[in-house]
């Protein structure tokens, strides 16, 4: 263990700042700005696909005073943690411990590994997202138990062009993932959407998320809507297009104004039915 500081480093301009300013700076240092993929505590491997983004955690090594006074909670509350398997997410939570798990607010599930020849991968996600609590959730694993402070959940289906599954099977997986969720403040479904033809389709069309529109029940928005807490008039549907991706979300207005867009005031619409949908809209 590291001994408490004896030298208060009063010559440092940073450490002379008021506490609220120092902690704001520490928080910015700990924010990655991009999703952290399959994080592993105290892992030093250099995975070519999942290199860790640059984080300012080296700040904790500058001196013992910073090590002791820096608030580490923003490292978990200000970042998006993306996982590609249930095993990865559960291993992360087990190694993290109960001190910081309540501060993980934003988790992304990447479905790139689901496969028709390995149906167990999809089933594991469905069981983990069943939102079960109590002894069952603790024994078999549950996102609700592992991340009690979860506010935002992202379901990433942007890899649908290369996922070896029938479009209808993939669509059913997406729908079932939300079947028993509740109490969120924001949920996003991420798809791949490129070209003028895609731009004319409704942002909630299954084409963007599984590559087909004849895939079964057209209830994506309703299922997303039911996962977000609050009255109907306190929630909105939003979408954004960027770099060939479509982000579709249902979010509470309070969370939207506080954490995403403080200037949001109204919804957007098509002017004509034949017009492309706005790239970004509500």
TrEMBL record:
What InterPro entries does UniProt report for this protein, alphabetically? AN11006-like (IPR038883)
Superkingdom classification of source? Eukaryota
> What name is this protein filed under?
F-box domain-containing protein
């Amino acid at each position: 263990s590291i001994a408490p500081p004896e030298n208060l480093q009063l010559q440092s301009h940073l450490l002379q700042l008021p506490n609220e300013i120092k902690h704001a700076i520490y928080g910015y240092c700990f924010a990655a700005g991009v999703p952290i993929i399959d994080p592993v505590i105290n892992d030093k491997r250099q995975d070519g696909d999942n290199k860790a983004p640059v984080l300012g955690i080296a700040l904790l090594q500058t001196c013992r005073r910073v090590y002791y006074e820096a608030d580490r909670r923003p490292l978990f509350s200000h970042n998006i943690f993306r996982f590609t398997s249930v095993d990865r997410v559960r291993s992360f939570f087990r190694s993290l411990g109960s001190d910081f798990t309540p501060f993980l607010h934003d988790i992304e599930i990447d479905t790139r590994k689901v496969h028709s020849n390995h149906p167990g991968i999809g089933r594991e996600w469905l069981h983990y997202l069943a939102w079960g609590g109590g002894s069952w959730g603790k024994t078999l694993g549950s996102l609700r138990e592992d991340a009690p402070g979860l506010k935002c959940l992202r379901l990433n289906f942007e890899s649908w062009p290369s996922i070896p599954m029938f479009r209808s099977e993939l669509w059913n997986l997406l729908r079932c993932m939300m079947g028993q969720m509740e109490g969120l403040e924001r949920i996003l479904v991420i798809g791949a959407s490129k070209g003028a033809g895609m731009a004319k389709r409704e942002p909630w069309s299954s084409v963007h998320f599984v590559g087909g529109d004849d895939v079964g029940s057209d209830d994506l928005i309703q299922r997303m809507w039911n996962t977000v807490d609050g009255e109907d008039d306190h929630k909105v549907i939003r979408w954004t297009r960027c770099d060939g991706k479509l982000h579709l979300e249902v979010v509470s207005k309070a969370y939207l104004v506080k954490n995403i867009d403080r200037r949001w005031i109204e919804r957007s619409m098509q002017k004509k039915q034949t017009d492309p949908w706005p790239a970004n809209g509500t």
